Structure formats: structure tokens, C-alpha cells
Amino acid sequence: MSVFSLSTLRNLGGIFGILQLSFLLVLLLLLFKAVHFYLSRKWLLKTFQQFPSAPSHWLFGHNLKDEELQHLLTWVKKYPAACSQWLWGNKARILIYDPDYIKVILGRSDPKAPGIYNLLVPWIGYGLLLLNGQKWFQHRRMLTPAFHYDILKPYVGIMANSVNVMLNKLEQFVDQDSSVEILQYVSLMTLETIMKCAFSHHGNVQLDGNSSSYIKAIEDLNSLAFFRIRNAFYHNDTIYSLSSDGRLSHRACKLAHEHTDEVIKLRKAQLQDEGVLEKVKKKRRLDFLDILLFAKMENGSSLSDKDLRAEVDTFMFEGHDTTASGISWTLHALATHPEHQQRCREEVQGLLGDGTPISWDLLDQMPYTTMCIKEALRLYPPVPVVSRMLNTPVTFPDGRSLPKGVTVALSFYALHHNPDVWPNPQVFDPSRFAPDVSRHSHAFLPFSGGSRNCIGKQFAMNEMKVTVALTLLRFELLPDPSRIPVPMSRLVLRSKNGIHLRLKKLQ
Ligand code: HEM
């Protein structure tokens, strides 16, 4: 045999050896994964014994896709207080929807469930929504003054201006046979409002069209994050970044960040102007972004650029998308219940019919409209579920218990549709919120509760009232019977087929 063929054989033997070794390593890894899968599934099955579950696939779990909310309605009736939901063969959580159960969890200080919330980090970073522990406490204390009464009061006029711009745009759909998908208009309006109020941004978001790509990016991220949470493979960053969803998510995050960076840059530039700076310094209380920028300017501040960006990304998203969902569903509820719509209109006409501008003081004088908004938030909670990971064992009032490490999902959607809490839960009945009607402290939680409740609750309620009041003054709302919206679970509640309304001009 020649020298050449001998060395070729030796090389081939070397390659073969490497292949053998790689094969062995892959086999070992797979074996390790299989054992891990088996043991964690076994642990979960044992742990969740006291919490029944609808039948599910051993690997794909309940795999409910866009039918999650519809299934929830059956589970609430079948499994009192709580049940288990399998997202994957070895990934499961306990869903709770009983007020006493929820009260127990919201009274504790368990962290946000990392397997769920951490997937949002590339998008909104560690802002108030995702932070835990001491840093969350410091940021919450720093940002709470941005929602003080003194700050919120002048926002009512800003909100009214933005709503009127939206209503002017909607005029083109008046008295037509076809309907208009309103969530897109409402989203731009709520984005403009939060940008003007919290970020001192003076542009015309609704008219210049530049922010539509941001809204689209948020729409994509809302769905992509929801599906990522439910796909075990996608929890791995490398696999996700190689997938088409991962690439889309990366592009959407980039777009969202460009939008927020621009807002920060603009405000920083405005504050370079001595006149503006002096005026802001003299204010007793600062707007949201100014609080952050001033905190950064202070010597020794622990607020990094990354922290600041995370807070801006968090509030830009939370501050507009949730309210847009809440407003759109409320308008849909009023369109399908003309008698309640008319009662609200009469109430609003009594206050604003003579041309009086809407103001902070008047917002407290719309009891019926407020009852209708609350009833819509009950039927269509914009944030359908939040999750915690138990950091110590818990025992619920009926004696059932769960160990440390379990993920507990507080399903506000299921709570609000629980027939033991709300008789005839599917019926839109604003009288449930009449002032003399009492209810469990944890029966109605669109804004969650406890220390991690929504910081923007009052802002959101004001914006909803202003929008509903001004819309009812101008239009009669009618449903589109061919496109009745179907609620669909996402991070923020959506409809499978959009939210379509027909508009009639009031005489
Ligand atoms: C109808 C509108 C809104 C609804 C239904 C809503 C609902 C909620 C819920 C359920 C939570 C708890 C989330 C969790 O535990 O994971 C929350 C937290 C939060 N919301 Fe809202 N929200 C609304 C509007 C707003 C607005 C307008 C802002 C800001 C201007 C805002 C900012 C936040 C922030 C920053 C948190 C995290 C608070 C913390 O953990 O300390 N939200 N919201």
C-alpha cells in the first residue's frame, strides 16, 4: 500500500472516531434530557394531584391555541377555584380564579414567574413590570409621583384633544353600511396620549402616520411573546433566534426601541434649553420621563441608561396597549347594548351637552358611564392573566397546598367569568357595579391588586371615561352583526377578527 493511501485511511479513521464521539455525546445529551423530562413531569403530576386538569397530551399539553379563553369558561364551571394547565409535557402551572385563592397570592410577595416574564426582557427590559425585590421597590417609589393627582389633573385636557382628533378621523366612516375596525384608531390615540402626557412629546402621532410601525411592532410582539411562552423549544434563546418567529421578534424589538430612543433623545434635547429646564425645575411634581431624566442627572444615581430605556419601553407599551384594548371592548359592549349606551349618553349630555369642556371634576360625575366601563372591564379584562412563582409553600383556604417553585397563574378572565362569583357571567349588566352592591374585595381585578397592582390605574380609568364620553356625544355606536368580535388571549386581550363598529352621526 502506498504512503498516500495509508495516511488517507488514518485520516478517515480519525474522522470516524470524531463522528463516533459526537454521536455518543448527542446520545448522552438526549438521554439526560429524557430523564430530566420524565422526572420533572413526574414531580409535577404528583404536586398537582389535588388540582384536577382537563385531559391533555403527554407532550403537547393542552395546546389550546386561540381557543384558550373558550376552554377556560368550561374549566371554571367544572373545576372549582383552581385547576392545572399543561403548556408542555413537563411545563405546567396552576390556574386560579377564586377570589379567596387570588387574595392569598396577591397578599404575598412572590416574584413574577421567570419562565414567562423573562421572555419579555429583550422587548421591555427590566422596567417596573419585570423587576422584583429591592430594585422594583426603589423604582416604584421613584415613579409613583408621576401618577399623583396634581399630575393627572391637566392630562384630562390632553386626553380630550387626542380623542377629538380620533373622532374627526372616524367621521369618514359615519352613516356607512360597512363597519370600521376601531382598535387601530384607538391604539394610535392612546399612544399619542401617553406620549404627550408621560413623555412630553408634542408631535401629532395620529396624523403624521410615523408611529403606525411602532403600533404594528407592538401588535406582533404581543402575539409572538404569547406563543413563545407556550412553546418549550422557543424558551431556548438560540433556537428562538434561528426561528422565523424569533427573527420577526428581533425586528419588532428593534423597531420598538428605535421609537423609544427617539422619544428620549427629543426630551433630552428639549431639556438642554435653559428656559425649558428652569421651567421644569420649578414644578412641584415632574412628569414620568422627567423624573427618570432628573434621577439620572443626580450625582450618584443608580439609574443606568439601560434602566431608563427599560422604564420608557415598559410605560410606552403598558401605557397605551392595555387602555386601547379596554376602550375598544367597552365601545363594543355599548354598541351591542343600546339601552345602556343611551343611558350613558344622556348622563354625558347632561354634563357636556352645552359645550362645557370635559374636566377632571366632571369625571366623578358620570356614575352610570363608570359602571358600564367597569362591566366591560369585567367581561373583557385587558390583561387576562398574570403569573407568579411561589418562593415559599402556600396553603389555600380550602386546605389544598402547593410547594415552592410552582408557577401560579392568576386568571382574571376566569375570575371575572366565574359563575360562583358573578351570576350569569356572560351577561353585560352594569348594575353589578351600582354603588350599593357589595362584592368580595378580590372579585373584580382588571388592574390586579396588592403591592404589584397597576400603577397607571387612575390614568387608564380617566382616559377610558374621557374617550367613552366624547365618543357618545358625537356618534351612535352599532355592532356589525357579520363580525361580532371573539375574545382571544394574548398578553393584552385581543379579538380574533378585530373589533368592528358601525357609526351613526347623532342629530
Ligand atoms: C385599562 C388599562 C390597564 C389595565 C387593565 C392594566 C392592568 C395591569 C395589570 C393587571 C397589572 C399587573 C401585571 C402583573 O402583575 O404582571 C399592571 C401592572 C402595571 N401597569 Fe397597568 N394596566 C392598564 C393601564 C396602564 C397604564 C395606562 C399604565 C402606565 C401609564 C400602566 C402601567 C403599568 C405598570 C408599569 C405595571 C407594573 C407595576 C408594578 O409591577 O409595579 N398600566 N397593569
UniProtKB/TrEMBL annotation:
Classification via InterPro entries: Cyt_P450, Cyt_P450_CS, Cyt_P450_E_grp-I, Cyt_P450_sf, Cytochrome_P450_Monoox
Gene: LOC101609153
Organism of provenance: Jaculus jaculus (Lesser Egyptian jerboa)
First-listed, main subcellular location of the protein, grouped into a coarse class: endoplasmic reticulum
CDD domains listed in its UniProt record: CYP4B-like
GO biological process: arachidonate metabolic process; icosanoid biosynthetic process; kidney development; lauric acid metabolic process; linoleic acid metabolic process
Record Pfam families: p450
Keywords of this entry: Endoplasmic reticulum, Heme, Iron, Membrane, Metal-binding, Microsome, Monooxygenase, Oxidoreductase, Transmembrane, Transmembrane helix
GO molecular-function terms, A-Z: alkane 1-monooxygenase activity; arachidonate monooxygenase activity; heme binding; iron ion binding
GO cellular component: endoplasmic reticulum membrane
Keyword Transit peptide on entry: no
Family named by the database record: Belongs to the cytochrome P450 family.
Annotated TM spans: 12-39, 115-133
Name of the protein in question: Cytochrome P450 4A14-like
Keyword Cytoplasm assigned: no
Domain of life: Eukaryota
UniProt binding sites for heme: C454
Cofactor: heme
Location(s), subcellular: Endoplasmic reticulum membrane; Microsome membrane
